[in-house]
């Protein structure tokens, strides 16, 4: 911390000296040294922020909402490369009363294949080419935490959908469960 404060102070002193010298000389226009120092300071601040957020492995759970795919874009900014990001989709368990379950016509493998295909189609843009994908079946909160631990991720990035009232009581908040169960930091993005 001292090192970064010292570096910022040095930038400030040099920048201040450039402003003071131009004021003494009676010059009104911005000096190249000032522009250079502002650019260096901005670059330094960005690098410092990225070193704090820059994670090696990031997990992004999606539910096919616009907010969840925006979280993928946020993760791309935080991770060192797209290959360090795993996008995961969790399928809900089917109710025992579902016709496919009763007549045993829906196979879990076909559900996973279909979901994987849909994920790849939705994230077909060139910027997503290095992403890794995973699909699981179960409770979203528990499965996300389990996959994060299995993959040894450094950060989970997910949106908060902000459910309230009866829906929240009945369904529960996936983001809350992930925060409670995860072994690593969780970045919850506000909509």
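Sequence proposed for the structure above (191 residues):
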């Amino acid at each position: 911390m001292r090192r970064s404060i010292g570096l910022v102070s040095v930038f400030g002193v040099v920048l201040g000296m450039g402003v003071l010298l131009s004021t003494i000389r009676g010059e009104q226009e911005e000096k190249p040294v000032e522009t250079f120092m502002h650019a260096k300071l901005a670059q330094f601040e960005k690098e410092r922020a990225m070193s704090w957020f820059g994670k090696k492995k990031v997990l992004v759970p999606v539910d096919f909402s616009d907010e969840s795919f925006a979280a993928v874009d946020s993760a791309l900014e935080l991770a060192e490369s797209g290959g360090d990001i795993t996008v995961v989709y969790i399928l809900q368990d089917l109710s025992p009363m579902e016709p496919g379950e009763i007549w045993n016509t829906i196979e879990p493998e076909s559900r996973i294949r279909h979901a994987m295909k849909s994920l790849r189609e939705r994230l077909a843009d060139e910027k997503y080419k290095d992403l890794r994908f995973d699909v699981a079946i179960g409770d979203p909160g528990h499965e996300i935490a389990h996959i994060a631990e299995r993959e040894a991720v450094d950060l989970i990035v997910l949106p908060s959908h902000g459910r309230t009232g009866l829906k929240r009581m009945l369904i529960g908040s996936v983001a809350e469960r992930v925060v409670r169960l995860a072994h690593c930091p969780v970045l919850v993005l506000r909509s």
